[in-house]
Amino acid sequence: MSRDICVHTWPCSYYLELDKRWVPGKLALTSLSLKFMTDKTGDALVNFPLSSIIEIKKEASHFIFSSLTILEKDHIKHWFSSLQPCRNVVFHIIEHFWRELLLSQPGAAVEASPSPVTKGKELTGLMACSQKRLEDAARVLHHQGEQLDSIASGLDKMESDLDVADRLLTELESPSWWPPFSSKLWKMPSDTKPRGDSSVASSKALGKEGVVIRVPAVIFQRTDSHVKPGMLTVFVSGLEIHDSSSSLIHRFEKEDVDDIKVHTHYEVSIRQRFTGKPDIAFRLISAKMPEVIPILEMQFSKKIELLEDDLMLRSTRASSPEEEGYSVRHAASRLMDCARHQEPSGSQEGRLLQLQTSKPLISERDTQELRQILRKLKGLALDSQTELERQDEALDDIATAVDRTTVTIDKQNRRMKKLT
Fold first, then answer.
1. One GO BP annotation here (predicted)?
2. Which of 10, 72, 188, 350 could serve as a FRET partner for 281 with CA atoms 20 to 30 Å apart?
3. For the segment 231-273, what is each residue's pLDDT rounded down to a tens digit?
């Protein structure tokens, strides 16, 4: 399964050193490589992996025209000019993907070169991706449980305060308070003394929100030319966009997001609509966006949209890592069943003998890794199931407590009206 997916293309010109002339065409960036194709023939004049780049600079050709230069490891320098919409946009996006490739795990940069991948390694990669997706879902579920616990704690404090109000109302309704003044009326119960501390603690608990994922991104705002590097952070309660100096550009609360459009694997746009004033909209491109999109789908399932013109995204998503892993496992199990229950005969016997002498598809090391990942997946699934059951019970308790608190408040309101 190739990761080399097209991220963006830009109209530009490439300087052909042999002919000493500029050739018009398109510069195409993929997740692992960069190539230039001519407009006239569509041939690729330049095609090199991002891992071979050692320098990206903004320069001027003949001291007049703004250009972008890329230097490779073998000291080959490529000149690109007349970049649209502007040189700054192209520079930030290419630099972002180049840096992310260099900072990624060892061996990721080598993926651009064709190397044989065994079935065991491929299956291990698919299972590891499934494990990461389940870990992200469990993290979201955990933060949701923390919010439910904070709500339940707040309701408990509210019921405690209502008990105090009930005692005070009882004292006011009894004739023993006048005259003389009853000392019990002004004596506050001991459990209400640290109320300030408890309110501070509850506010801290409510203010605490977990970071689900944080990724570097190239941020577009208002126009395609207004671009800056920054960071996208996904919380349980919303989204935050920061610039490269970690200053907050904008925060979207979860209920404020009106739509999220997924343009490609690496590009999404987020919008908040307004009446009578311009909408707040951002477009973000990130090399880590494939890790963010599944989380956005869980957080904003009714507001996210996969654009119909992005056929590659849909076809790739149709064969997601989980589904591929599922189909591979089931195909393997069916083959094993056939091997156990079908009697070899004739040419089948010869093929079976040939298979027995050939090298196994999955090595023992890959099998051990798969067993470890499957054990982790099983543990995560059981923990998620337990947490879901606990949250269902917590929701029932919260609903019961809300009903009980509402009845108590109505009753005390009627008693206070009688006193006035």
1. synaptic vesicle priming
2. 10
3. 999 988 889 999 988 889 999 998 889 999 999 889 999 999 8
| pTM value > 0.85 | no
Same fold, 6-112 and 211-307: yes
pLDDT in tens, 187-201: 444 444 444 444 444
Q: Which fold has domain 211-307?
A: PH-domain like (2.30.29)
| Of the listed ranges 32-36, 76-80, 117-121, 281-285, the one predicted with least confidence | 117-121
